[in-house]
Amino acid sequence: MPHHHWFVYLLLLLLSAGAPADTLTGRIVGISDGDTLTLLDAEHVSHKIRIAGIDAPEKKQPFGEKAKTKLSEMVYNRQAEADCRKIDRYRRNVCVVVVGGKDVGLEQIKAGMAWWYQQYAKEQTQLERLDYEHAESLAKRHRYGLWSGPNPTPPWEWRHNGRQR
Q: Looking at the domain covering 20-160, what would its CATH class be?
């Protein structure tokens, strides 16, 4: 019988490993750029969060500072809920962040302050994919923010080309 208990325990451990990370709630106390912020939880633990589903221009790119300002105006010093789905290679939580009932990643796309990060679309729900794609096409059509220029360079290409320094 002990072997049976061990197997059940192992199975439960494996199943829980695939479960979504967690939900963080707290106040936004820092903005690094247009898609990265810091949340301070009730235990005064700070969490560096990369907003899921978007990629904002780097600080030195056109609209980089504007994207950071827009995010700051939306979330700084406000209560937020972060649905965290993974940890990235920089040890940041990757989360859908909601402030005042709004998905801030989606709001950044709507304002033309970020791209929909299609490379990670598989990590989004179907509804999020549809919303983000729709928001990006509207921002493009109306030439909001970064879409106002003739040929905006996505940040992943900009970083790849080594122009971030």
A: mainly beta
